[in-house]
Amino acid sequence: MGMGRALAVALVGLNGHVIEVEADIGQTLPSFILLGLPDAALSEARERIRSAAHNSGIPLSRRKITVNLVPASLPKKGSGFDLAIVMASLEAAGDVRRTGGTVFIAELGLDGRLRPVRGVLPAVLAAMQAGWKEFVVAESNLAEAELVAGAKVRGYASLAHVAADFDADPRELVYAVPDGPTAAATGPSEGPAAVDRATPDLCEVAGQAEARLALEIAAAGGHHLMMVGPPGSGKTMLAERLPGLLPELSDDEALEVTAIHSLDHVRSGVNALIRRPPYERPHHSASPAAIIGGGTGIPRPGAASRAHRGVLFLDEAPEFEKRVLDALRQPLESGELVLHRSAGTAAYPARFQLVLAANPCPCGKAAGKGISCECTPMARRRYFGRLSGPLLDRVDIQLQVNRVQLAQLSDAAPREGTAQVAARVQAARDTARERLRPYGLVHNADLTGRILRGPLRLPPVDTALLDRAMGLGTLTARGYDRVLRLAWTVADVQGRERPRADDVGLALTLRQRGEGQ
After folding, report:
1. Which of 95, 470, 473, 496 is the most interior residue, by most CB within 10 Å?
2. Listed range (117-121, 134-138, 410-414) with the worst mean pLDDT
3. What ranges do the domains of the chain cover?
């Protein structure tokens, strides 16, 4: 009887910490002590692993077993430590050989099956960055773990399969599932494949020439967008087509996005990198925790983080809780959500494009002359009052969307599709990336006032209209900079080296909604 060691990973948000699992078998009465700030799910591991080990033919020692999770000061959450705990305990008893160089990530069933857990991808990434390369996971998590380049991953169906590969006595083992090929037998996969996600085509949108242009500019510069218009004017159709205009994610971006979504998948897991920008459309009744993230213990990511590198669409935006909308101001500026809870602090990336859609009034009939609208002025003010000034000031494009006319709906002329517009968006982004490279930026939406009024300063003749708007008090200093950012994107879409006066004018128009809003 002696000491056994194995490795596991504790996730706090997307940040993983390699945990050393120490097991010691004493000479006193039978007991099982688990140390190291385990949560309720992890504390229950004592009974799970006893049953799993017994039903796999390698019962744990009947003496006192003490398991310590190091560092002890870091809170541990979830059932993903089960396999590491049982392997350390079996090593301490001499039933398996040394396991200290392998990271174990799996939950145990009472019959010894290995069950998948959330967050395998960020866990493997964290362990790889800490210098560990050997991993054992449940078969269901194998494809996800193999997405990390350089990781040597083995997937198993049951504890008995794992113990057999670590030199347990094969005559004693009881397999919970029929023998089958494991990762060690089949070898590594051919590598991750891109997720094929069909996206709606822009050619399906009738009319709305101004809105289509605004959508293209938003995609080209990474700008936030708000559309105000009556029901049926096509706001949702336009928003759904924005992800299709965005370029595919780079390898690093795809790995980052897939890691976030790994925290929400258990049964099917994540078996390929997410290459297309994600699209999240939460319902207006969603709670702050559903949008921003939260929950008991270590907070989980919400829709804002799941939309990272993609689009977060809030339909009927004024119907969302005001505190939810105001909470979005932090990620709109920093691209990150930091959630503080008593059990710990979690940080999730949340660099998304925000798309807001709203009716012109609570009843939605105030479009045009608004003759049939019965909303009082107070009701209209209260409706839009939920969209605070500081939030709207961060939205570059604020567009009035009108109803589609019969002539536009019946027009048989071919319309540009997503592929053609996406090609122009890619060209505009390439132009912006080359121009912004010296400043360490990628999108025009990331430009700072210091750069806009310094190296990229426009001549006064081109900013005269903008200067006048700020002088009249209709534009804030933040709004002034955002119009300039928008003007640079307009110029990129038009294929010009720098914005002209008409580009600045169009940018200012796109930022100011129609009368009465």
Report:
1. 95
2. 410-414
3. 3-186, 203-511
pTM of the predicted protein model: 0.86
Beta bridge partners, 358, equal: 228
CA-to-CA distance for 303 and 313, rounded, in angstroms? 10
Handedness of CA 465, 470, 475, 481 (dihedral sign): positive
Both structure tokens of 254? 């795809």
Beta bridge partners of 34: 67
> Cα(131)–Cα(146) distance, rounded to whole angstroms?
16
Class of domain 203-511: alpha beta
Which pLDDT score is estimated for 198?
61
Distance CA(507)–CA(445), nearest Å, equals 13
Element (H, E) at 54: helix 45-55
- For 421, other C-beta atoms within 10 Å of its C-beta total 23
Yes or no: say if 405 and 230 are a contact pair by the CB < 8 Å rule: no
Q: What angle do the packed helices 460-471 and 501-511 form, to 10 degrees?
A: 30
Q: Is the dihedral of CA 293, 299, 300, 306 positive or negative?
A: positive
pLDDT tens digits for 194-246?
Answer: 434 467 889 888 888 899 999 999 999 999 999 999 888 889 999 999 999 99
Evaluate the CA torsion angle 263, 225, 389, 501 in order and state its sign: positive
